[in-house]
Structure prediction request, 508 residues.
Amino acid sequence: MRWGMVIDLKRCIGCYGCQLACKAEHGTPPGVYFARVLKHEEGNYPTVRQLALPVLCNHCEDPPCVEACPTGASFKWEEDGIVDIDYDLCVGCRSCMMACPYTNRYFNDQAPQYYPQGMTAFEEARTARHQPNVVMKCNFCRDRVRAGKPPACVANCPTIARAFGDLDDPLSEVSRLIKDRGGFTLHPEVGTGPSVYYLPP
Amino acid sequence: MSETSAKYDRLIQDLRRDFRPQREWGEGRGLFLVIGHFLVGVAAGAWLFGLLFDYLPVLVAGFLLGGAGGLAHLAFLGRPERFWKMARRIRTAWVARGFAGLTLFLAGAGLYLPPLLMPSWPWNSASPIASLGWLMAAIGAAVLIAYMGFVYSTSKGIPFWNSPLHPVLYIAYAFRGGAAALLVAMAVLGAPSADAIGLLLKLWIGITVIVIVLFVLELQGAWSGGNAAARRSVRELLAGRLAIAFYGGTLLIGLLVPAILVSERIAPLGLGVLAAIGLFSALGDFFMKYTTIRAGIYLPLKMRSLR
Prediction:
């Protein structure tokens, strides 16, 4: 089994719902974005359009971050292909950040709150599990997935632009979408075999 | 505005850019990584040159510089108290190999040097323990010289560093740093012979020429054969935010001033001039590492790359 995600760029409206849902689910500190949305305008007035590109860890089949990690903190779960971080092993050398061709890893050295007034009780509960001075990244909401739920960004997408499923199963929704709609990955030339696919806008 | 909020604001600005500069290696605490790489490079080069010229003071200097380089690496790490875990992935990670190399070097030098410095030491310099130390230190030094360039060239996120020339350049710079350390040591503490200084100077000139050729080839390759991020890095280096450090540090201090001193246009080649050549050369090497590391630009996730 290999978990994967398909993001339909035609459906995505760039509402940042995925980014906020991820923040709420993981309580990531300022400066750490497991999911984010890039926006780009193209064309000339009046023929212009705005494109949104949601990005997250690509959970590569051949992850260069895992190869670069000197401690084994970055690793890939054999049973589902999710690339994860064991925060107890991370020494904060940041070589994985340099190895990731998708720039989806963040070093957590910020103060853990957004507002000078301090953290709310919710924020405290959410951020308590995060270690400072280690690298953090998306883990496809592995706890949710193991409990039979979709990742938070998938569950919260108001336009159902995201699909989540088993890439190894040719009958799964993600495999079907990739095949029927010409799904593609970012930077295929790097040869990492991403598990996040995009459908053309 | 607090430092934390300024850093956060800068990150947000960086995330909006097409070409996001890497800031983790080379800025803030990341500067310790540059210092660490510089020191262990010079240390390993100095050790090998010390063995080649059979010159004890520079072996001691190499050992001390290696130790200082290790401390600089620790100062860079986010969780230095876990440093020992870095040996776990020696089969795949160049950082782990570097850690193993530094450990081997320091341990080996720690076994080899004491009997040379203190005749009453429990084992003598011809003993199996000292021989083992010699071998460990030599292997460790070779690993240290090689590993740094590979750490960068295997970083797929930074196209500018992805050149196969990068490891070769770092190896050449380590040798140049070793020659510079030996020049300074011989100038200050005295040379074993006049011939030794002449030979060393010729070696330094030869390595410097190789370094210049490799550096030009690397820049040319990134500019003509690299992608947009690699070209942007070259622009940052030659005409962007790092231009002053590059021209002033790498070229002027590291190449031009030593070249003028070697040509004897200012003063004859006395011991003071030799020491100055070594110091300027080493300082230039530091700026080379600093500027090429800081010039790293992440592979962009641009919408234009979508088909």
In short: The mean pLDDT of chain B is 93. The longest helix of chain B spans residues 194-225.
